[in-house]
Design a protein that fits this description.
The protein is built from seven helices and seven strands, in the order αβββαβααβαββαα. It is α+β, with helices and mostly antiparallel strands and 236 residues long. It has one domain: 3-Layer(aba) Sandwich (L-fuculose-1-phosphate Aldolase), CATH 3.40.225.
Length: 236
């Protein structure tokens, strides 16, 4: 089959983008592992690389020891693509990633991990909803806890469904945390924000409670978040 020069250029660009996505996923996996956000084979990371295609971490592999060749190419129904060369199964939590991509076409990266403090709040079923931190209000509004769902079942994507439109991340009851963003690095940054916020909340609670931002301050930050959302939408 012969391709026109423009088609060849598009194919090369897509290949380069996929190669970069593989490197990004492995780099983020190493960061998650090194920072103690995951242990053993915990966690999963994905990047949407096309209209009906994504790369996702394989099942049963430490995120700190992945190589680009291990990542699995799937369609948005969760089927492994015929030309996938990994020889591996995709993460058992792929349904959760697929639900994010279906409901949020602006998202191209999803990160799931088990950071200690965030997971502790998830086990307590305690939203991070007190307005202590401007960064948390600006990025999330609050960090809610999705109801408990049995791992690797359809309960998991159903449990996060109500939060996808209005949030960029959440806690998974008795499970961990999930973050999504315009790219996989943005999703990682939000995961880092979730865990950092959880650590600060724990310290504040240990010290007897803190002083929240005022209603006017929260309103200002909320309006600023909406402004950034609208500006990002205009760029697309």
């Amino acid at each position: 089959m012969n391709f026109s020069p423009s088609e060849q250029q598009e194919k090369r660009a897509a290949k380069d983008a996929t190669s970069q996505a593989r490197e990004d996923i492995c780099a983020i996996g190493k960061l998650l592992y090194d920072r103690g956000y995951v242990a053993s084979n915990d966690g999963n990371i994905s990047v949407r690389t096309g209209e009906n295609e994504l790369l996702i971490t394989p099942s049963g592999v430490s995120k700190g020891r992945m190589t680009p060749q291990m990542l699995v190419r799937c369609d948005l129904d969760g089927n492994v693509l015929q030309d996938d060369t990994s020889g591996r199964f995709p993460s058992s939590e792929i349904k959760m990633h697929l639900r994010v991509y279906r409901r949020r076409p602006d998202v191209t990266g999803v990160v799931h991990a088990h950071p200690v403090y965030a997971t502790a709040f998830a086990i307590l079923r305690h939203d991070l909803d007190q307005a202590y931190l401007p960064e948390l209000v600006l990025n999330f509004g609050k960090i809610p806890v999705a109801p408990f769902a049995m791992l690797s079942t359809d309960e998991v994507p159903a449990s996060i469904e109500p939060y996808l439109a209005d949030y960029n991340g959440l806690l998974l009851a008795n499970h961990g945390a999930l973050a999504w963003g315009k790219d996989v690095w943005a999703a990682f940054d939000l995961m880092e924000t979730i865990e950092h916020s959880a650590k600060i909340y724990k310290a504040v609670h240990d010290l007897g409670g803190g002083v929240e931002l005022t209603g006017d301050q929260v309103e200002y930050l909320t309006n600023l978040r909406e402004f950034y959302k609208q500006r990002a939408a205009k760029k697309q």
